[in-house]
From TrEMBL:
PANTHER family for the chain: DNA-BINDING PROTEIN, POSSIBLE DNA-BINDING PROTEIN
GO terms, molecular function: DNA binding
Keywords for the protein's UniProt record, in alphabetical order: DNA-binding
InterPro entries: DUF3140
UniProt protein name: DNA-binding protein
Disordered, as annotated region: 25-57
Length: 116
């Protein structure tokens, strides 16, 4: 595992920040809005690929998580923290690229416990 944080620290932050249920995230990833945001190197954005990995991780029992999955969880936590600290737009927050991007990473900033 490449993160300097312990697995327990990563798990705790992940549970706090990734606030979308696996099915909700999976459904979101199928929308045009989800596919419209993010940097793309091969037709699918980095965030969209990450979202598919997040669904898989959320459906995995904690005791069965691999080091690679914990590494991705740490990446997700870092992404969500960075983008939440930047804040979203003052207007049209609900349909903003900022929100859509965060949702691809499993965090709905407008949900309970969200960063908006």
């Amino acid at each position: 595992m490449s993160s300097s944080k312990s697995k327990e620290q990563i798990w705790d932050e992940w549970r706090d920040l990734v606030n979308m249920a696996p099915q909700d995230l999976e459904d979101w990833l199928e929308t045009d809005e989800s596919k419209s945001v993010g940097d793309s190197d091969s037709g699918e954005s980095t965030g969209h690929k990450s979202g598919r990995r997040i669904v898989n991780i959320k459906r995995t029992n904690k005791d069965d998580l691999t080091d690679d999955q914990y590494d991705h969880m740490a990446t997700v936590v870092g992404y969500i923290k960075r983008h939440c600290s930047q804040g979203g737009p003052k207007e049209d927050l609900e349909s903003s690229a900022w929100r859509y991007s965060l949702m691809n990473w499993g965090h709905d900033p407008l949900a309970d416990g969200g960063c908006a």
